[in-house]
Structure prediction request, 583 residues.
Amino acid sequence: MPAPASPGTTPPIAQLPASALKLLALTELKLLVRERVGPVYAIGLPLALLIVFGNIPFYTAHHTSGSFAGRTLLGVYLPVLAAFALAALSFNVVPAVLAGYREKGVLRRLRTTPVGPARVLAAHLLVTAATAAVSVATVLLVARLAFAVALPRQAGGYVVGFLLAALALLAIGLFIAAAAPNGRVANAAGATLFYVMMFSAGLFLPLDAMPPLLRHICRASPLGAAVQALSDATDGHMPHLLQLLTLAAYAVVFGAGAVRLFRWE
Amino acid sequence: MPAVIEVRHLHKRYGTAVAVDDVSFRVEEGEIFGILGPNGAGKTTTVECVEGLRTADRGEIGVLGLDPRRDRAELTQRLGVQLQEGQLPGRLTVGEALRLYASFYRKPADPRALLDVLGLSGAHRTPYGRLSGGQKQRLSIALALIGSPEVAVLDELTTGLDPQARRDTWELIREVRSRGVTIVLVTHFMEEAERLCDRVAVIDRGRVVAVDSPTGLAERVQGGRRTQIRFRPSTPFEDSLLATLPDVTAVTHQGDLMVVTGNADVLTAVASVLARNGIVAEHLRLEQPSLEDAFVALTGDHAARPDTTGGSAVNVAP
Prediction:
């Protein structure tokens, strides 16, 4: 096979067999499952919360007036659980794993192979996003089947909102991994951000129940914007452009920052 | 025939610290080439430039006729690298790691066969995090060879291994070489270089101070005049009987032992004189200059005793 006559340091995409990329993603999936943190946080906890809330009449009662008119509190919380899954993975899994890979020299070793380390990062993010998607789908289905909560009425809008939210949050997770000097710092920073962000998502107080100023501030945060977009789609509207743009902006800014800051070793 | 690796006037600095000042060497096809030097001499930086992990500030590097930075795609297919520090995810098993890495290459080696050769077959399903230090090291070598490379660069190959594992690893490297793989071995371990390498480049403070075979280096540094014989003569005799021989430089005594120093031919000369005089040399021991002596002489005091800085240089010629 002749050497590719590519100038610069273009990675050898054309030469790589598809099996390498598949195996890389499969390996990342296995590792995510074996580490347990990801599945437990991203799928187990949201499901557990759903089942607990779903069995408390306070949450399943239909509101006829006020901030939650026409909805149940459980229905209001479903987008928050979706945000929970995304945040758990982006803040508690991605930074620790990737900063750990760098710290342990996993990425450095990959630099000496034809695949290079960037594809491993991509495989990890892809597997993480897929896990979040599985979590959200499971939560929505269980809520529908066990607690009669309607599926999102604007499905397309829901998917768009979810994808943009995933991009924004994974970009932030990647940024933490890039900026943190080691796995421990990445873990601590991620865990702290997780709680701050979950507040802005309305985990402790739903967005609709917040005072207006606080609600506006929270909606400007990545998780607040995500929950608002998913809530709109759940109620049957296209997500508001403002929230979609907010999510896209986070994705671009933190994605670019991560790419700029990221060190392979 | 072009060299497998050709490095010319390599220079690399980190900020103001010069890691590699001026390094040049050639590695020929099929040899085991050692890069020997004290800690911080610039060995690892040199091979990292060869591997394309770092960009040289100055100088030229060719590996299999490729530019390590520009032709990464092709080079990574043909150059196997064992890094000094490069772990794997703790929950990845040995078998999974090898299969994954095998999928990266055009013509991978058979993972099963490689595990057999490295004595890791039993650890096939063991997660990386549970491997012993020796097993991790052997897996690291396996990953360097999984792509069937034409050249393998091995950095601190046997550091942290017990003596038996070390010898097994050396045997393995000889075997790999016999299959036609050119090997570059970075080490600060003298015995390893002496036993394994066809040629050795001694690097000190970012410069190549000598390139030769291990025996060539030892002889060159000692001027061929430091072979020592110790023995107990069966009957006493005058020192002058040996001291007058042209191959002998000194005759001294240690208790009832006689110590004769001379050049490489001193043993033959002494033996024939003793035989002619009916003297038997009991407890005969021969000490030849070692690579270690050469190393200390070439790199000076600071390498042998890191706590003394700028100490007096060792005389190369006696």
Notes: The first helix of chain B runs from residue 43 to 51. The interface with chain A takes residues 51, 53, 66, 69-74, 76-77, 79, 81, 83, 85-89, 91-92, 96, 99-101, 103-106, 143, 147 of chain B (CB under 8 Å).
